[in-house]
Specification:
- With about 300 residues, the chain is of the alpha/beta class.
- About 35% of the residues lie in helices and about 15% in strands.
- The chain has one domain (about 10-305): Rossmann fold.
- Helix 5 (about 165-175) links the parallel strand 5 (about 155-165) and strand 6.
- Helix 4 (about 135-150) crosses helix 5.
- The chain starts with 7 loop residues before the first helix and ends with a helix.
- Mean pLDDT is about 85; it is low at about 1-40.
Amino acid sequence: MRPRARTPVRLWLLLASLIIGPTPAAYANGRHAAPLILHALPGAERAEVRIELLSRDDEPSKHVEIFWTQPKGTGPWPLVIFLHGHQDGSATPGGKAFVDYGVLDDAATRGYVGVAVSQPGYGRSEGPADFMGPVTQRAVEQVIEHFRAQSFVRPDRVALEGVSRGAIVAGLVATHDTRIRAMVLISGAYDLPTLFGSNPGPRPAALSRSMVDEMRSDIAKETDGSANALRERSVLATASRIRTPALIVNGAKDDRTDPEQARALAQAIQANGVFARALIYPDYGHAIPYDVREREVRPFLDQYLR
C-alpha cells in the first residue's frame, strides 16, 4: 500500500523527529537480510532496503545492525554512512529511523550507497551503549571496512553524516580514519567537559538545566563517569588529527549543545589545512528540518564524493 501524502506541517514534524530521536512506535522488527521498502521523502524513488546483522569483531556474539540501499546499476558508487542520535525507550528504531523517513531512498536516488547504522544499545545492535565511546566507534569503523571491501563501493569516496550523538561519533571516527572523504556533523557537542563536566565552563543561555542533568545521567550510566571519559569522547580534544573536510551544522537556539563549539571545531579543522565550515541557523534549535539543511548538505557531499 502506498503511503498517503503528508501535509507540509506533518512532513516537517516527521523530519524534525529524526534529529531528536523517533519514538519507539516508529520501529518495526525486520529479519536478517530481509528487503524492506518504505518511503517518506517526496522526490526520492523507492529503493530496496537491505537489513543485515554484522558480527562485531570485538565481541563476535554481538551484532551491529545496518540498513542499506544502493542505486540502480552496477556501480561502484560513493558511500554515505548515516548515524542517528539518542533515542528514548526500551525498543528503539536505531538506524531504521533513516529508512522510515526515506533518507536512504534519497541517497540511492542521488547515486550513493546509503548505510544507516544502529549504534550499540539501539535497534537490534546489542549493547550496552557506551556514550559514543570506543565500542560505538569501533562498530562504525567495522561497517565502513565491510563496505569498502564491496565491489559496488568506491573505497576512496566514503562520507559520514551524523545527527546529535551521531555527529560526535562521526567526528571521533574521522580522528582515526584519515581516508574519510567528507563528513556532515549536525547538532553535536564537541567539548563535553565544558558542557557536562563536574567543573563546566561558561554555558550558552539556551542550554537547559534539565538537559544538562539528563546528559549527566546518561554519562553516569554509560561510562565510568570520569573526566577522562568525557575528554576521550570530545572531538575538539583530538581535532588536530582530522584530515576530513567538514560541514558542521547547528541551530543558534539549540538547548542541548553550544553552537560556539561548532565554530571552534571548524576552526580547529581549518588549522590542519583542511576545509571546514560551521553553518549556524539562527531560527532553529536542536531540530533542524531536513529540507532546510539539505540545501547545504547536498552540494557539499557532491563536491567531495563525485
